[in-house]
Amino acid sequence: MKALMFEHVTKTYKVGRGFVNALDDVSFEIESEKVTVVLGPSGSGKSTLLNLMGGMDRPSEGKITVFGSNIAKLSEYALTEYRRKKIGFVFQFYNLIPSLNALENVSIVQKMNNQSFDPKEMINDVGLGKRSRYFPSELSGGELQRLSIARALCKNPDILLCDEPTGALDSMTGQTILKLMVKMARKYKKTVIIVTHNASIALCADSVIHLKDGKIESIEQNKKPLTVDEVKW
Ligand SMILES: Nc1ncnc2c1ncn2[C@@H]1O[C@H](COP(=O)(O)OP(=O)(O)OP(=O)(O)O)[C@@H](O)[C@H]1O
């Protein structure tokens, strides 16, 4: 089943008196329950792509279909509902609430979605069971990243969007995080989309989209993705 389809999507930004096509006539499909990696150099349009997928922004032209509905046409209200219910975000800026402990930070998403998972189970699953009463200021970068994954997962979203999830982490912690992302697709049947500069991550993906100058350079299907342990970092 297709989770996501982009058809001739262009995103144009106005800069001074001119325009920049951050994405230029981009078309591709993403299978559900798979891991897709988006690779590309700085400025190639990766964040723009992620913002469009997550309903944070709308395309200037083209059609974006998510599980059968064209999100480019949704009202503002419906788009907010889409973001709240369907999408889990794992961004580098963790957006955790400093005055809430780890468990409370995960539990708040229960209010957003009545199909959410058990927060305690999610915290255990990312290996933070013993840290559930800690506050964000008492956690390391890797732990914060795992906590933000637990929160994104707790919402039980259909699609998980990850922006450089291992960017600021050492390779051991990065591997742990990547294992969690892959597990989300394999165990929890989520559609996982990871935007990164790190080509090693692509070896674990089912498909890899290469972006360059706002265009798709190539799309590879990986019949035999490696496990995270098999990848050399
Ligand atoms: N809000 C904006 N206004 C104007 N130009 C923008 C805006 N957002 C992005 N751009 C331009 O669009 C192009 C693509 O940007 P984008 O952030 O999507 O790239 P990226 O691949 O995510 O880069 P990086 O890896 O450095 O984060 C760049 O040339 C950028 O300057």
State the gist of this model.
With 233 residues, the chain is of the alpha/beta class. 28% of the residues lie in helices and 30% in strands. It has one domain: 3-Layer(aba) Sandwich (Rossmann fold), CATH 3.40.50.
Spell out the key features of this protein.
Rossmann fold; 233 residues; binds adenosine-5'-triphosphate; 6-stranded mixed β-sheet; single chain
Beginning-to-end CA distance, first to last residue: 32 Å
CATH level-four homologous superfamily name: P-loop containing nucleotide triphosphate hydrolases
**H and E string:** EEEHEEHEHHHEHEHEE
Helical segment count: 7
Strand order of the largest sheet: 6-7-8-3-9-10
Into which percent range does the helicity of residues fall?
25-40%
Main beta sheet strand tally, sense and closure: 6 strands, mixed
Any idea of the CATH class?
Alpha Beta
CATH fold type? Rossmann fold
**Segments where pLDDT lies below 50 for 5+ residues?**
none
Task: Specify the structural class.
Answer: alpha/beta
Shape: globular
The structural domain count equals 1
Ligand set? adenosine-5'-triphosphate
The appropriate CATH architecture is 3-Layer(aba) Sandwich
The gyration radius over C-alpha positions equals 17 Å
Question: What do the pLDDT scores average to?
Answer: 90
Strand residue percentage: 25-35%
Count of β-strands? 10
Organism: Shuttleworthella satelles DSM 14600
InterPro entries: AAA+_ATPase, ABC_transporter-like_ATP-bd, ABC_transporter-like_CS, MacB-like_ATP-bd, P-loop_NTPase
Keywords: ATP-binding, Nucleotide-binding, Transport
Pfam family, one: ABC_tran
